[in-house]
TrEMBL record:
It comes from Trichoderma arundinaceum. InterPro entries: NAD(P)-bd_dom_sf, SDR_fam. Keywords: Oxidoreductase. One of its GO terms (molecular function) is oxidoreductase activity. It comes from the Eukaryota. PANTHER family: DEHYDROGENASE_REDUCTASE FAMILY PROTEIN, PUTATIVE (AFU_ORTHOLOGUE AFUA_3G01250)-RELATED, PHOSPHATIDYLINOSITOL-GLYCAN BIOSYNTHESIS CLASS F PROTEIN-RELATED. Pfam families: adh_short. This is Short-chain dehydrogenase.
Length: 325
């Protein structure tokens, strides 16, 4: 079923799978936490008694305003912390990861929600959508994985690493065939990337997570990693899109769009999902690999991951083997 058909058929009410019993006293990292899905996920986690919420944001002022909003709505202070993270700069990703490793006793879940949808622009020598949604997203994951694995062994639980993706990438089989040999290089070279940029970056996330999970089973690594499709939600993600596309989205939102609060429930479900979600594509808060088209196979996963690894090793030599060995 095409992604647009899935969006039109999506549920507008979803279960809230977190609770005080599951989350009390625990530590969570949520990126892109000052607006939309990330903000609402952080608000829910504070509300159910989490011990510490790291709100990773590019704009500290906006992050502090979001934190004040959470404290006002929950009546709970001194739980949410605002940390700087700019995914368009690798040095910022490094600094954030090293701070988390050095200062957080343990991490229950990392919810990588931050993303951009832009038709043009460059960052760190790549199309900005590739830099933010793919390379920096996996750089953060790989840098934090050794810490998550150590926490798992030390404390006897399975940290979650959730990559917020999208079903929009599932319709790109024909495009994937053109770029699959080295997708990052080929997408950067595609002058007509345009509207394919965001869904292609989300496809890369799905493929890479499937490959990482294959290389690092839960029994070996102790960490549960998956991708999450939050569905079509009323957020500011499309703010840089052409007006015609914004108008189209507005019409779709009216038909089937989820609120940011409802969409955030998919992120929270990932943060407490079981071992059956490892490597999976989660939709409507549950593992839904039945929605993955047949052309998304082990070969595609290896191609996507190998392309990403080449970039990660340029940025932080040895980081991938350290995380996955």
């Amino acid at each position: 079923m095409a992604a647009i058909d899935l969006a039109l058929a999506q549920k507008r009410e979803l279960p809230l799978k977190i609770s005080k019993e599951l989350c009390a006293g625990r530590t969570y990292i949520v990126t892109g936490a000052n607006v939309g899905l990330g903000l609402e996920a952080a608000r829910h986690l504070v509300g159910v008694g989490a011990g510490k919420i790291i709100m990773a944001v590019r704009n500290i002022e906006a992050g502090e305003a979001a934190k004040e909003s959470i404290e006002a709505s929950t009546g709970i202070k001194d739980v949410a912390e605002v940390w700087h993270l700019d995914l368009s700069r690798y040095e910022s990703v490094r600094a954030f990861a090293f701070k988390a490793i050095e200062t957080l006793d343990r991490i229950e879940a990392v919810i990588e929600n931050a993303a951009v949808a832009s038709l043009d622009g460059k960052a760190e020598g790549h199309h900005i959508v590739l830099t933010v949604n793919v390379i920096s997203t996996f750089l953060l994951a790989i840098l934090l994985l050794p810490k998550l694995r150590t926490d798992s062994a030390k404390f006897g639980y399975s940290p979650r690493l959730s990559i917020v993706s999208s079903g929009t990438g599932l319709d790109l089989g024909e495009y994937w065939a053109k770029i699959s040999e080295d997708p990052i290089v080929n997408m950067d070279a595609d002058d007509a990337l345009g509207m394919n940029s965001y869904p292609a970056s989300k496809l890369m996330e799905i493929l890479a997570v499937r490959e990482i999970a294959k290389q690092l089973p839960v029994a070996t690594g102790g960490v549960i990693i998956h991708t999450i499709n939050p569905g079509l939600c009323e957020t500011s993600l499309s703010r840089n899109a052409p007006q015609s596309f914004k108008d189209h989205l507005k019409d779709m939102w009216a038909q089937c769009g989820r609120t940011a609060e409802c969409g955030s429930r998919t992120l929270l479900a990932g943060g407490v999902a079981g071992k059956d979600s490892h490597g999976s594509y989660m939709d409507d808060c549950v593992p839904s690999d039945n929605l993955i088209p047949s052309w998304i196979d082990d070969t595609a996963g290896a191609q996507a991951w190998n392309s990403i690894v080449k970039e990660l090793e340029k940025i932080e030599p040895g980081c991938v083997s350290k995380a996955l060995k």
